[in-house]
């Protein structure tokens, strides 16, 4: 039984065709995956279903009737609900208040709280309606969004990258919920780039490439690699890791503690680890457990006790970012636009942010514009950044290309120690493989690399040693060999001794 | 339906065109204003923009233009760095007054010492006076996160009352029949800032201003300090990442603008104004804010905007005397300039699209 049918949908933005003649169906009671690289057109497609944008050509049928939503409300009325990748919740309000805000005619708070409790019990989504959202973990916040959708009794639930912020245990719990929903007849359109998850969860998958439907497959009958190759349209090369002996300690962090100034931030507590030459250390953890704070402390944007961070022979806890870079400690923060790069400035100028001193892009404070442009040119070439010229504003680049630019800017400065948060977030599969390879080569060349990531598969692929950050504490680093997904999950949940 | 569509890259043409559009719009709406006041709008606009430059008595007015433009440009240059970095010094008028009082007092204290060292010392003290006055909002912002807009603005009124206290007290001219004003600097050659070439209006402050325009241009386009200022304004977190300390930025930008405003005050009081009086402040510190934005916070733009604003000042005097229009009318006219500039500014980052309404 078909729930929703999309017939020949086409959507153009200016001269760019985001969706080109898309046709596929989602059946009642199935979990249907939508696969594709960044820019393949997944977002545009679900936005059309959710009524956020309207197709230029083509029609949709829902339950056998014509369906052409002009806004999300029209979609919700027809039984379509969506959980976005980025939540829209007010931290200072309770769960029930947040849910009431999204409703057309919210019931009294008590009645609503009871409804929330009923739904959360029924689907195994434990959640106290009276808690402040600011105090919830990311996984719990997602439950708020899911419950908000379930209260509408949807026929089709759209989920955009729902597991990117969850621990393995939380993922399992979510999948149990989704399977129960499916068994009750709800259809789920599931967007993810985690192919193993899709194999275990989804009944069918539609693959998009460059805005077109490339094919429909049964994920169980495919391998993750074969699906990835369908997405990319070519053979994938997995980064090659060579076992090396580690050299001398480069970065020694000892009892690093830092109080967060943000009321909803995380304080760092007694962080201790050592990175040796040639070592790639992976830091897993659910977002919001102190990753950002750790980055700031290591980059020098926030200063700490002098002796809590040691780079080779120098204590640098009280040293600012410029001096740390000159000593060989480079970093790449998670947020590309606005933190790693200035949106309005062009690429040439953006090299100055971290390269002015270390790359000697000037003399006595005067900027060598040609030198900066040449460095930007080199990054663009070596890291295959797709852009019109070094004169393009950073914000005009796609997320993946800007990430490549930022990674290139730091890696080409030949760091002794490189610290990166979410190196491949939002980057397509081929570019992600390229960035991982570059990180491994950096380590092979004798640098120490610290990778903070939410992507466990990525960490398993490139790390030598592994640790987990949870509530501002870092677990003792251990060799990646022998680490199981279960151990990681327990560590991510905050378990101390395993 | 007319829509605004974001541009991927800011339009370079519009950066130059928008000030011109703003001036034209001001002329049109200002003309309407003059019509409602019962005057011939073409005559009034001609008097404001044409007569000071090329009219019958322009030989006299042209000198006046430089005299009025120099302090506006000097102050606006200082402000532009802070404005680019997102640090809002609204109190340049106060720093201007303090520069004039401290620098002027230094000279008066040395009266009648006839030494070449007097005037340079006064310039330094004038700049220092403005600098220290601007350090008050800087300190309060760094230490207590107090809003620099409010603090610097309120300090204007403190400075004004300090000036009144000084000219009615310690700095009052002992030979001046108890008038609330200081000794005239014209009577004290070592401390006087005279017109260097008769009839041109050029005094030492005008030459300093030109030097600062060049210096500021080099800093903002070629030096890493200028880059850091822009970075701090556009992407504060990226600036932190680059190693720019926000607190240092606050101190430098406020200090710099304070010092330049103070120096402008010193040149004004020792030259065109001639002495410290209770009517010494003319609002240059406030008008410089308009000049800074009209000039797009760019040194060359500020130079042109300062000259334009000076023209409207002189032209305003002309329409006041010849058309007997109220002073407020020219102030409204000047205010419109900033208003229209901010309004058309949207065209730099957006383009207008005229399209058929989307059918629902």
Descriptive notes:
The complex is a heterodimer of chains A (498) and B (360). In chain A, strand 14 and strand 15 form a beta hairpin. Chain A is globular and about 70 Å long. The termini of chain A are far apart. Chain A has 16 helices and 23 strands. In chain A, the strands form five sheets. In chain A, strands 13, 16, 19, 20, 21, 22 and 23 form a seven-stranded mixed β-sheet that branches. Chain A has a six-stranded mixed β-sheet with strand order 6-7-8-3-9-10, with helices on both faces. The longest helix of chain A is centred in the middle third of the chain and has 16 residues, at 168-183. Chain A is α/β, with parallel strands linked by helices. By secondary structure, chain B is mainly α. Chain B folds into two domains: 1-24 and 325-360, no CATH class; 40-324, ABC transporter involved in vitamin B12 uptake, BtuC (Orthogonal Bundle), CATH 1.10.3470. Chain B is 70% helix and 3% strand. Chain B has helices at 12-36, 41-54, 58-84, 92-110, 118-144, 148-168, 204-222, 224-234, 236-241, 246-270, 284-294, 299-322, 327-344, 346-349, and strands at 2-6, 350-354. In chain B, strands 1-2 form a two-stranded antiparallel ribbon. The longest helix of chain B is centred in the N-terminal third of the chain and has 27 residues, at 58-84. The radius of gyration of chain B is 22 Å and the shape is globular. Chain B starts with a strand and ends in a 6-residue tail after the last strand. The model of chain B has no long low-confidence stretch (mean pLDDT 90). Chains A and B meet through helix 10, helix 11 and strand 18 of A and helix 8 and helix 9 of B.
């Amino acid at each position: 039984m078909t729930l929703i049918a999309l017939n020949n949908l086409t959507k153009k933005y200016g001269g760019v065709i985001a969706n080109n003649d898309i046709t596929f169906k989602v059946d009642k009671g199935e979990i249907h995956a939508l696969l594709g690289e960044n820019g393949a057109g997944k977002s545009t497609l679900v936005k059309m279903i959710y009524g956020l944008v309207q197709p230029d050509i083509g029609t949709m049928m829902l339950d056998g009737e014509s369906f052409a939503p002009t806004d999300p409300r029209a979609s919700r009325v027809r039984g379509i609900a969506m959980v976005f990748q980025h939540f829209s919740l007010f931290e200072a309000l309770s769960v029930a208040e947040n849910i009431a805000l999204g409703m057309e005619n919210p019931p009294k708070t008590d009645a609503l709280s009871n409804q929330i409790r009923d739904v959360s019990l029924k689907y195994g989504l434990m959640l106290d309606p009276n808690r402040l959202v600011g105090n919830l973990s990311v996984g719990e916040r997602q439950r708020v969004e899911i419950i908000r959708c379930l209260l509408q009794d949807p026929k089709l639930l759209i989920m955009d990258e729902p597991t990117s912020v969850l621990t393995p245990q939380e993922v399992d719990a979510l999948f149990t919920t989704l399977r129960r929903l499916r068994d009750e007849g709800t259809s789920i359109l599931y967007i993810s780039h985690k192919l193993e998850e899709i194999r275990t969860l989804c009944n069918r998958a539609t693959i998009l490439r460059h805005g077109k439907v490339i094919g429909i497959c049964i994920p169980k009958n495919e391998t993750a690699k074969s699906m990835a190759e369908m997405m990319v349209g070519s053979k994938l090369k997995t980064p090659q890791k060579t076992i090396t002996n580690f050299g001398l300690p480069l970065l020694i962090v000892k009892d690093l503690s830092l109080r967060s100034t943000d009321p909803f931030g995380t304080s760092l507590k007694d962080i201790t680890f050592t990175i040796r030459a040639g070592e790639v250390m992976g830091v897993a953890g659910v977002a919001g457990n102190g990753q950002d704070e750790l980055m700031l402390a290591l980059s020098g944007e926030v200063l700490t006790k002098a002796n809590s961070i040691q780079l080779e022979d120098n204590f640098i806890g009280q040293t600012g970012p410029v001096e740390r870079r000159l000593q060989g400690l480079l970093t790449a923060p998670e947020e590309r636009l606005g933190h790693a790069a200035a949106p309005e400035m062009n690429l040439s100028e953006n090299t100055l942010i971290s390269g002015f001193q270390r790359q000697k892009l000037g003399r006595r404070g005067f900027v060598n514009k040609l030198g900066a442009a040449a460095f930007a040119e080199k990054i663009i070439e070596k890291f295959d950044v797709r852009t019109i010229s070094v004169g393009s504003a950073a914000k005009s680049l796609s997320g993946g290309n800007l990430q490549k630019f930022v990674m290139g800017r730091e890696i080409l400065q030949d760091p002794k120690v490189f610290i990166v948060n979410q190196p491949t977030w939002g980057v397509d599969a081929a570019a992600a493989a390229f960035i991982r390879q570059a990180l491994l080569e950096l380590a092979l060349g004798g640098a120490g690399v610290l990778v903070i990531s939410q992507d466990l598969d990525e960490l398993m692929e490139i790390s030598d040693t592994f640790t987990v950050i949870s509530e501002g504490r870092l677990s003792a680093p251990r060799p990646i060999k022998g680490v199981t997904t279960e151990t990681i999950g327990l560590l991510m949940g905050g378990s101390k001794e395993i | 339906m007319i829509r605004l569509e974001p541009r991927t890259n800011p339009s370079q043409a519009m950066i130059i065109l928008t000030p011109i559009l703003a001036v034209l719009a001001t002329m049109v709406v200002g003309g309407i204003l003059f019509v409602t006041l019962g005057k011939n709008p073409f005559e009034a606009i001609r008097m404001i923009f044409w007569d000071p430059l090329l009219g019958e008595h322009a030989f006299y007015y042209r000198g006046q233009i430089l005299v009025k433009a120099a302090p506006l440009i000097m102050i606006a240059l200082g402000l532009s760095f802070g404005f680019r970095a997102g640090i809002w010094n609204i109190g340049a008028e106060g720093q201007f007054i303090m520069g004039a009082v401290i620098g002027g007092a230094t000279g008066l204290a040395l009266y009648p010492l006839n030494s070449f060292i007097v005037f340079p010392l006064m310039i330094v003290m004038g700049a220092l006076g403005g600098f220290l006055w601007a350090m008050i909002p800087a300190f309060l912002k760094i230490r207590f996160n107090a809003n620099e807009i409010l603090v610097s603005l309120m300090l204007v009124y403190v400075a004004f009352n300090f000036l009144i206290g000084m000219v009615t007290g310690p700095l009052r001219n002992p030979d001046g029949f108890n008038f609330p004003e200081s000794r005239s600097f014209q009577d004290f050659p070592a401390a006087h800032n005279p017109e260097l070439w008769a009839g041109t209006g050029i005094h030492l402050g005008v030459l300093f201003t030109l030097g600062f325009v060049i210096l500021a241009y080099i800093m903002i386009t070629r030096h890493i300090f200028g880059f850091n200022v822009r970075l701090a304004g556009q992407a504060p977190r990226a600036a932190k990442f680059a190693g720019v300390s926000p607190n240092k930025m606050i101190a430098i930008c406020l200090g710099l603008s304070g010092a330049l405003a103070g120096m402008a005050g010193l040149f004004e009081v020792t030259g065109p104004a001639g002495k410290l009086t209770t009517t010494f402040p003319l609002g240059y510190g406030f008008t410089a804010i308009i000049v800074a934005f009209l000039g797009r916070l760019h040194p060359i733009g500020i130079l042109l905007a300062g000259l334009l604003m000076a023209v409207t000042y002189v032209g305003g005097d002309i329409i006041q005397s010849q058309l007997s229009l109220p002073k407020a009318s020219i102030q409204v006219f000047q205010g419109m300039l900033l208003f229209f500039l901010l309004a058309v500014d949207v065209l730099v980052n957006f383009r207008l699209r005229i399209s058929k309404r989307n059918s629902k």
